[in-house]
């Protein structure tokens, strides 16, 4: 597994890590996870949670969870067996929210509330301007928002747009993170535009051996 640092602007320090899977060089990460069934994806998530429980108790970590699992009550029941105040659940595919019907949206909100009551923080990953209306319409108060790295890279040459988007994100959460930080200048720009947290290859990853099988 890979552990990508989460940097706090206010604390000027690393405050946690996003847990990412390490695949072989020939495997495409996005294709791999999109091809998994709910059961297979849940197995990956539970494997990560078990590992964190056993090896890294006390250090804060962010786990990616797709909407397909977050709307599934039985899957959430399984995740709740590993509840922890040191683990954040990230809704990893916000573009899927707009595709949900009314009952599925209700299930999503109910399950995220259950996770929060059990001690998990709930963040939204990869937010873009196009997805914003569907997220606002959901009416859920996320503990944190992550700005999609591609949006950040696109708006680097237009800082006023980046600042405006981060400002809008703060209406959804008090905590806004900008992904895709790779250089000192990018770091400074994101901070200037109001980011509370930063993430990217500017900070070296940690890697640990682990098998989900």
Protein model, in words:
- The chain is of the alpha/beta class and 213 residues long.
- The chain has a single domain (2-207), classed as EAL domain (TIM Barrel), CATH 3.20.20.
- It is 40% helix and 21% strand.
- It contains nine helices and nine strands.
- It has helices at residues 29-34, 38-55, 67-70, 73-79, 102-117, 132-138, 149-155, 159-169, 184-192; strands at 2-8, 13-20, 61-65, 87-91, 121-127, 144-147, 176-178, 197-199, 206-207.
- It has an eight-stranded mixed β-barrel with strand order 1-2-3-4-5-6-7-8, surrounded by four helices.
- β7, α9 (184-192) and β8 form a beta-alpha-beta unit.
- The longest helix is centred in the N-terminal third of the chain and has 18 residues, at 38-55.
- It starts with a strand and ends in a 6-residue tail after the last strand.
- The relative contact order is 0.15.
- Mean pLDDT is 90; it is low at 24-28.
What is the fold's blueprint, element by element?
Blueprint: E1 2-8, E2 13-20, H1 29-34, H2 38-55, E3 61-65, H3 67-70, H4 73-79, E4 87-91, H5 102-117, E5 121-127, H6 132-138, E6 144-147, H7 149-155, H8 159-169, E7 176-178, H9 184-192, E8 197-199, E9 206-207
Parallel strand pairs: 2-3, 3-4, 4-5, 5-6, 6-7, 7-8
Antiparallel strand pairs: 1-2, 1-8, 1-9
